[in-house]
Amino acid sequence: MLSVVAGISLVYDLVAGIILLAATDRMVAWLGLHTIDPVLFAKLNGLFLIAVGLGYAPALRRPDAHRTYLWIFGPFLKGAGAIAFAVDHFVHGSPAVFLLFAASDALLAAVTFVALMRSTD
């Protein structure tokens, strides 16, 4: 199960990062934002997501050897991301599409948490 979760997370983060890096203007428009200033912040977030996604590759092959990575970038980072997206929407009025990111991050955080708890070292 951990390998499946790592594979899904790899694709999820890699695709999001590539889209954000390669099609920043389209992504900003789709998110309902007016602009990101400076655009470098969006580009750096794209690079970050690509790096996080690629970090799942070793965990895909040997998940028990990479449990720490799965804990940090699964329940911790994706859980915190879900909270950040939801809070930003409800407190700062960011677009409703942010709730989609909150839900998908929360789902991946929860699934990773369950998989980690069920697996043995």
Which descriptors apply to this entry?
single chain, 121 residues, mainly alpha, 0% strand, globular
Instruction: Label the structural class.
Output: mainly alpha
* End-to-end Cα distance: 13 Å
Cα Rg: 15 Å
Instruction: State the assembly state of the protein chains.
Output: single chain
Largest sheet: none
Low-confidence stretches: none
Tell me what portion of residues adopts beta-strand conformation. Answer: under 5%
Q: Could you spell the SSE succession in H and E letters? A: HHHHH
* Helical percentage: over 70%
Integer average pLDDT: 93
**Number of DSSP strand runs:** 0
Q: What's the structural domain tally?
A: 1
- Number of H/I helices: 5
Shape: globular
3D architecture notes:
This protein has 5 helices and no strands. α1 runs antiparallel to α5 (97-118), α3 (40-61) runs antiparallel to α4 (67-92) and α4 runs antiparallel to α5 (97-118). The protein is globular and about 45 Å long. The protein has one domain. The protein has 121 residues and is an all-alpha fold.
